[in-house]
Amino acid sequence: MGDAFIRHIELLGYEKRFFPSQHYVYMFLVKWNDLSEKLVYRRFTEIYEFHKALKEMFPIESGDINTENRIIPHLPAPKWFDGQRSTQSRQGTLAEYCYALVNLPHKISRCLHVVNFFKVRPDDTNPITDSQIKKPEVFLLPKDAKKNSADITGPIVLQTYRAIANYEKSSRSEMALQAGDMVDVVEKSESGWWFCQLKNKRGWVPAAYLEPMDGPDESEEQEPNYAGEQYIVQKSYTAVEEDELTLKEGDTIEVIHKLLDGWWVIRKDETTGYYPSMYLQKAGEANTSMKSELRNRSAPPRRSTIRNAKSIHKQGRKQISQETYRRNSKRYLQSRRNMKEKFQNKANVIIEKNEREENKPKAQPAVPPRPSKDLILNRCTESTRRKIL
């Protein structure tokens, strides 16, 4: 038989897993040309990385040269925090993507990149688990939600956002916006710059100028993490607003809240404030040319600095005050200090106890009594008996 290829990919649903930490994986039934059927599990971030690599392999078919030639389907970028709601709502889009992928010309649908991605891996048959962690929860896609392949004809629709104010571009790679413009988001960068398309125009746009159509977008953001993640400052920045921090290159800080507009809340010692995420790099992470190039650009504007912003939603985004960040951060740091002191005191008690045991004078062995004369005469040798006579 010739080279293996995929006949059909069916999305069955998703699993909520709890090891090594809580996350979600999609379940796919992959049908191969030898009539075998295999079950595989993939995270959405994996699928999106596969999608980006496929576009790079086929630039014409992905529309990079001319958008009219695009046949590779669209796939929305992952959200900052993939919760159960976003995982569930993405199933229809993902099912359509898989159908469109398999029906592309053979040079794409049967290329090694596609075949290898959907091959069974060891963790598909034996997922990593922990006996002390509860078992994965399975959520199957309802039968009526699975579209018939004949109903799927068009390309996948990207996430649509609306501009809340006018934006004038400052470089050729950016795209100007007018309030009310509806743009499709192609890629979301954690720097706060999103790559968008508007009709035949494409370019980078500050995320702060965009709002989703279905309501405030705080659901896409992670909750504050006052334990903090350690990052290294890769580019100095001087604070412009009162709630920002001034730092120099090489400083070590902790990120406690990652926000969509690319301005993260960080902690330096006991001080908290905003800092451009594009000037930060996670401790221990390797530097790349792409990151270095990104840092040469200016930081995106913050939401709070946008004038004449007009939202279509009655309820605005929930904003955490800087005072709340400071208070909760100090509370966490104090609890960490108390815990450290508790363990330190416990260690000191053990050390003192060991030292007392070591310094305690050791009991001397008792001197046995001198045997009596009769005992010596009865039990000892002739030479010993002569000595007492």
From TrEMBL:
GO terms for biological process: respiratory burst; superoxide anion generation. It is found in: Cytoplasm. Residues 350-389 are annotated as: Disordered. Gene3D superfamilies: Phox-like domain, SH3 Domains. GO terms for molecular function: phosphatidylinositol binding; superoxide-generating NADPH oxidase activator activity. This is NCF1 factor. It comes from Stercorarius parasiticus (Parasitic jaeger). It comes from the Eukaryota.
